[in-house]
Design goal:
Helix content is about 40%, strand content about 20%. The chain has about 325 residues and is α/β, with parallel strands linked by helices. The protein folds into 2 domains: about 5-110 and about 235-315, 3-Layer(aba) Sandwich (Rossmann fold); about 115-230, Rossmann fold (3-Layer(aba) Sandwich).
Length: about 325
């Protein structure tokens, strides 16, 4: 069975830094799967462009991969449900997106509400500082922050939940930690504001700090924790798809740098999707959904297991990293 896989990715616009990595990740994966056809279109980080492109890909492709970003994936899920298709979500971790259309969306990503868990468990085991949680403008940041607040309270950590631009409250003599969940630029700006305070945070963690570009966005990233969907060495041996060492070598050969998680989660989604199509003996929505719901496995991205009723990812865990003098390393 020769399959054609289609993906809308942000190769331009505000999500281009991540969409470009996803494209390279898919190209590396595709190079090891020569019998498959891969079609990628630029959604320009624009929901209207995405809508037109995804409808066109649906007519031409057996398997559909979603875009990068929770906002764009929300639109892609709506379109897949309208067209009676199944779409593989590698780029939108919002809880509402993952559960939006049971039977039409299969997600490989740790849901946004669980992003902060590895950092908060690490903090609870060390110093259990009170945490100021700052979310960005979008729904993704709000969902990450709400989840962080709930997890922190379950661990006995005091929290203050703040919105974009809110003042960071201080208590004289009290050490504190900062956790930011927003767009890349929002997280960087929040950390800069916090560091300029008379009593800056003792510990900082940000979603943005989970990618290597963060090292160029902040004057001194050392000591900052990051959370992300993946980091080299944090996964298990791959049962499906390309192995991590082979993927990293091939990606670095193409891009000149190692990948961040957007590239790996896209490649893992393609591997899982094609496996399910083969297992199901076809690419109809019902057949793909049944195959995905029954699957428990590992890829270079980590564990995969979905809720068979909602399509929400249950198996995959977020990775905790920290910036040091030698760059980014897993904790």
């Amino acid at each position: 069975m020769t399959l054609t896989i289609g993906a809308c990715l942000s190769l331009s616009g505000k999500h281009a830094r991540f969409g470009t990595q996803a494209r390279l990740g898919l190209e590396v994966w595709h190079a090891s799967n020569g019998a498959l056809d891969l079609v990628i279109e630029d959604d320009r980080s624009d929901p209207a462009v995405l809508q037109a492109s995804l409808r066109g890909l649906s007519d031409r492709c057996d398997i559909l991969l979603g875009p990068y970003s929770t906002q764009l994936m929300r639109k892609a899920g709506d379109i897949a449900a309208e067209l009676g298709r199944l779409i593989w979500n590698h780029g939108g971790s919002g809880d509402d997106v993952e559960a939006a259309h049971p039977g039409h969306i299969v997600s490989v990503l740790t849901p946004a509400s669980r992003y902060a868990e590895p950092f908060l468990r690490h903090l609870a085991g060390a110093e259990a500082l009170p945490v100021r949680i700052v979310h960005g403008e979008g729904s993704f940041g709000r969902q990450v922050a709400a989840g962080a607040e709930a997890i922190a309270r379950s661990l006995g950590i005091d929290t203050v939940l703040l919105g974009p631009g809110d003042d960071l409250p201080q208590t004289a003599g009290e050490a504190w930690a900062l956790f930011c969940a927003g767009a890349f630029e929002e997280d960087v700006e929040t950390i800069k504001r916090a560091r300029a305070l008379p009593m800056p945070p003792r510990t900082v963690c940000a979603v943005a700090a989970g990618v290597r570009e963060f090292g160029q966005a902040l004057d001194d990233p050392r000591g900052v924790y990051g959370v992300g969907q993946w980091f080299p060495g944090t996964g298990s041996p791959a049962e499906l798809g390309i192995e991590e060492p082979d993927f990293l070598a091939a990606y670095q050969d193409r891009a000149g740098v190692l990948p961040d998680y957007p590239a790996v989660q896209a490649a893992a989604s393609a591997a899982i999707a094609t496996h399910c199509a083969t297992a199901a003996g076809g690419t109809g929505r019902d057949a793909l959904w049944s195959a995905a719901a029954a699957l428990t496995t590992n890829t270079l991205f980590g564990a995969f297991k979905i809720d068979p009723h909602t399509g929400v990812q249950l198996g995959h865990q977020a990775a905790l990293v920290r910036w040091g003098s030698d760059g980014l390393a897993a904790v």
